[in-house]
Specification:
8 helices, single chain, elongated, mainly alpha, about 45% helix
Amino acid sequence: MRKVEIYHDKEWLIEQYNKTKSIYKMANMAGCHPRTIHKWMCKHKIPMHGMKGLNHSEETKKKIGSRVLEVNPTRMNGKKHSAETRTKMSLSRRGSKNGNWKGGVTEEIRKFRRSKEYIAWRKAVIEKSGGICEECHSDENIEAHHIISLHEDISKALDIDNGMALCRSCHRKRQEG
């Protein structure tokens, strides 16, 4: 036969809650977690005092409100956008409007960058500069950079005069700026 826990008994819960006013103390007495006591109090529809009836001053209300806005500035916590709004949001973040936009890197360009011709172009650009960054004169992590990007003019993709050697950090700065 299954053992019935003391916190299952509605009368015990009411009696202990009236004495202690604390589900934590009750949980300690029953040898269980406070959430278990809370669950059974709710199951038996026993009212708990909690924060009901507490009146905050206007100053406190403003502090609470400002903190809520810091944590959730959109005030959308627990709410959902309509399908129309989600579609508009999606469209507003596509292509070059997206923060992760890579300038239209396509499968063709990826394939091109793996070609023997492109690898030879990279090597020639780096050799032309003597393996040194043309901006900071570092000799570590040297990469080939297209002055006129592939997306602007693909015809200059293998032109050695359209390339310059840059270290990784200078190359990133050029790509971001």
